[in-house]
């Protein structure tokens, strides 16, 4: 650990990944995005990569839990009648992907919004619902908005997750 501008900063790998302040963040691994019969499948997208990814994520998740790392699921959720979806996002989903506006995507309370069954959260896991989608087409890197929002609402101070010593 070093001190920079009066702040202690983690420097070693052991400090950076210490389970006492580390989380495994799983973003949008939901039926509408990853499962046969979900929205992306209905729209004709190839889900083979998603299906191959799930066993690997499961192994990482199990190893993380064994090491004492807190799993935090980020769950994309649309309110019924698209109450939280912006007009530009609805336009993107309809024009770019061909989504039926009446169906929606990851609508709260539907099978499509659930985390895939192979990675179901446990009772002590943290599930953070996000009402706006991550948009990898923006100028910012993918999931930047999700990570920024969730880092300020889900972990510090309630979980002890931190990027720097306290």
Main β-sheet, spatial strand arrangement:
3-4-5
For the record, the count of structural domains works out to 1
- Specify the structural class: alpha/beta
Share in β-strands: 5-15%
Percent helix, as a range, is: 25-40%
Q: Which CATH class is shown?
A: Alpha Beta
Outline type = elongated
Secondary-structure element string: EEHEHHHEHEH
- Count of alpha and pi helical runs: 6
Give the biggest sheet. Answer: 3 strands, parallel
Rg: 18 Å
Number of strands: 5
The low-pLDDT segments are 139-146
CATH topology label: Rossmann fold
Please identify which CATH superfamily we are dealing with.
Answer: Isochorismatase-like
Give an account of the 3D structure.
With 166 residues, the protein is an alpha/beta fold. The protein has one domain: 3-Layer(aba) Sandwich (Rossmann fold), CATH 3.40.50. It has six helices and five strands, in the order ββαβαααβαβα. The strands form two sheets. It has a three-stranded parallel β-sheet with strand order 3-4-5. β4, α5 and β5 form a beta-alpha-beta unit. The longest helix is centred in the middle third of the chain and has 20 residues. The protein is elongated, with a radius of gyration of 18 Å. The two termini are 12 Å apart.
